[in-house]
Structure formats: structure tokens, C-alpha cells
Amino acid sequence: MDYDLVILRYGEIGLKSSKVRSRFEKKLVKNIRASIDCEVDRNQGRIYLFPKDFEECLSKLNKIFGIVSYSPAISTYSNFEDIKSTLSDYVDGLVELGDIDSKTKFAIKCRRVGKHDFSSQQMAAFCGSVVVEKLGCPVDLTNPELTIYVEIRDDDAFIYHEKIEGPGGLPLGTQGKVISLLSSGIDSPVATYLMMKRGCEVVALHFDGAPFTQPKAVENVEKIIEKLQEYASGVPIKTRIIKYGDYLQKCKDDAPEKLTCVLCKSGMYKLAEKLAEDMGALAIVDGSSVGQVASQTLSNILATRYGVEMPILSPLIGLDKIEIERIADEIGTFEISKIDDGGCSAVPRYPETKADIERVREAQESMNQEKVIEETYANN
Ligand SMILES: Nc1ncnc2c1ncn2[C@@H]1O[C@H](COP(=O)(O)OP(=O)(O)OP(=O)(O)O)[C@@H](O)[C@H]1O
């Protein structure tokens, strides 16, 4: 099929005030242009793309947040004669694709914006008769096997038959910056993705626990970031890696063994908070989910956040593992996260599962956590 353009639809952006909407639309267009070579026209709540390479354009649009659906289309003028000849060519293309034949139950849906000397129903009936005349196939408005859309906007008309689902969400970069704690596990890549989907620019922060962890962990994180970059058109993910082995050693040496994991997580939040202040980020993101593993009890989640002032957002907090895995699979990070990274040898035999804030505070003091955090930050 020789398409001329792609029509984009956006959902939530359309609900905003006209000023905000215009800002979001502009950002969306900028993000699209960053990875797709195309001309863009914005008009009456729609974005029209005229790409140089259709295949490439269609493969990238389903990874650009803010787009609810999109349709490759053919354009013509909004009069009976032009619509008839363009629709006739379009139907030839559909026959070639095997999408319609003389037995296909079909419907025409017509939408109109502007003043015309015909109604939408009249145009739909006219287009229906063009197709019937050509192929003799039956019209079925209730259960069509194929719907052909005729969208008329003032002097222009667009014909298409597909509405491809986009990723939804808000345009990346419209909602401020976050520091996302990214491990090579299944959860944090999904948490990062969900915040990107809500329009947040991401700085991915990974803690390299060597010598307690293996180089494979950093390698896997780098592969995950590469995968997530596919969704970051226009606002690439920035990466920071903090060497965390010395901090972990201090936890083991100067605090109760049982609290190593709690102090590890608490240190991550505190370092993320420092980085956020330096990079102008407004929140920290992590992949916590209540009760998912023994270390993620509600009391542990709360105790690890003690002394951190910046909001910590956990978009997976109420999701089941199976729901998280499904998203990880859809976005392509699951396969990478499943690769064994060797784990962390700093984990004690019996890690704390019911951390008490008072005991955590004492442990933070006994290891002089604030000073160690300062040193760790300065050395990275
Ligand atoms: N090495 C690390 N670097 C950066 N963030 C980390 C690291 N380890 C853990 N985190 C953050 O802490 C969260 C909770 O980690 P924890 O190990 O308790 O759970 P998890 O279920 O293994 O998480 P994940 O599947 O994301 O690794 C992670 O989702 C992630 O956001």
C-alpha cells in the first residue's frame, strides 16, 4: 500500500487546557522528530506525519509516549470525485494485501470536521456504494470484518483501515526529572518504564556492589538501559554508576550483620537524594512492591526510607509479580533481567525482615552513615 501520511491520536493531552496542550503537543512532536525523519503538521487535535521511511516510522511510533493510536493513511480532497478515485485505489491495495475480497463483511465509518454540502452519513453511504460496486462484498455495520475509515477535515480527506495501538501515557520530558534506582532485576526496569510513560525524564542510577557483586550485574544494567532507550526518543536516559563496595564493607564491619540489606537500601536512597539535588531531579524511583520478597516487608520499606526527605516513588508498590513480569516481557527487559548476575555476597544469612526504625537509626549512627555517604559520593 502506498501511504502518504500517518495520523496520530493522543488521549490525555487532549484533556488539558489549551496552553498546556500546546506545550505537550510541541514536546511530543519534538520527541517524534528526534528519531523519525518526517514532516509534521499539527491541526485540530491531530498530528499528521509525512515520514521519509514508512516502515521505520511505524516501528518507532509504538515506543513514543503520548501516542494513543496511529493510522497509516492516504490523503485526498474532500469532494465526492476525489474520494471515489482515492478510495478505489485504496481498496485495490487492500485486495492486494488480502484484507478484502468479494465475501468480506465491511463497514465505512465517516467523521467530519468543517462545513461541507454533505453529511457524514451521506458520505459513508456513498463510499460504501463505491466498494460494493467494485467488489460486490456485503455491508455489515454491526459486525464488520473490515472497517474503512474516511476522515474529513475541511478541504482534506483521509482514508485508512488500521488503528494501531500506541503506548499511551504523556510525552517524555513534560513531567520533570527523576532519579531511578536501576538494578539488573525484573522490577526496577519496569518501574523506570512506568515513570517514563508518565512523562518523567530519567537519570538511571546503578550501584555497583563489587567485590560483593559480579561485573555481569553492571553489564546487564547497561543492556537494560539500552533497551529502555528505545522508549526515550527526544529525552535520552542519562546513566550514573556509583561504586558501592566500600560502603557495603562499612555496613558489614560497623553495624549489625542482620541490618546490612536495610542499610544498603537506605544508603542508596541517601546517595540518590544527593544526586537528585545536583541534577535538578524532583523525586527518587525504585522497584519496591509490598511483600514481594522477605526484604520488602512494609516495615523494611519504611525503615529504609528513614532520614530521606525527597519523595521516593514506587510505581510497582501494589502490583503482583506476575503483572510486573508481563510488562517486563512486553517492553523487552525480562529476557535480560532473567540472566543470572551472580547475586550479592554481602547479603547476610538471616537478613532483617521486620526492621525497627529506632534500631536502624542506631545502626546508621554506629557506622557513621552520613560521613560514609559523603565520602562515597565524593569518590564517584
Ligand atoms: N544495585 C542496585 N542499584 C540500583 N538500585 C538498586 C540496586 N539494587 C536494588 N535497587 C533498587 O532497590 C529496589 C528493591 O531492591 P530489592 O533487591 O529489595 O528487590 P528486587 O525485587 O530484587 O528488585 P529488582 O527486581 O528491581 O532488582 C529495586 O527495585 C531497585 O529500584
From TrEMBL:
Listed GO MF terms = ATP binding; CCA tRNA nucleotidyltransferase activity; tRNA binding; tRNA-uracil-4 sulfurtransferase activity
UniProt record similarity statement: Belongs to the ThiI family.
Compartment(s) where it occurs, according to its Swiss-Prot or TrEMBL record? Cytoplasm
Keyword tRNA processing on entry: no
Name this polypeptide is given? Probable tRNA sulfurtransferase
* Originating gene: thiI
| SUPFAM superfamilies assigned to the protein according to its UniProt record, in alphabetical order | Adenine nucleotide alpha hydrolases-like (SSF52402), THUMP domain-like (SSF143437)
Positions of ATP binding: 181-182, 206-207, 265, 287, 296
Keywords for the protein's UniProt record, in alphabetical order = ATP-binding, Cytoplasm, Nucleotide-binding, RNA-binding, Thiamine biosynthesis, Transferase, tRNA-binding
Domain THUMP residue range list: 55-163
GO BP: thiamine biosynthetic process; thiamine diphosphate biosynthetic process; thiazole biosynthetic process; tRNA 4-thiouridine biosynthesis
Q: What is its main location?
A: cytoplasm
Q: Which GO terms describe its cellular component?
A: cytosol
Cited Gene3D superfamilies:
3.30.2130.30, HUPs (3.40.50.620)
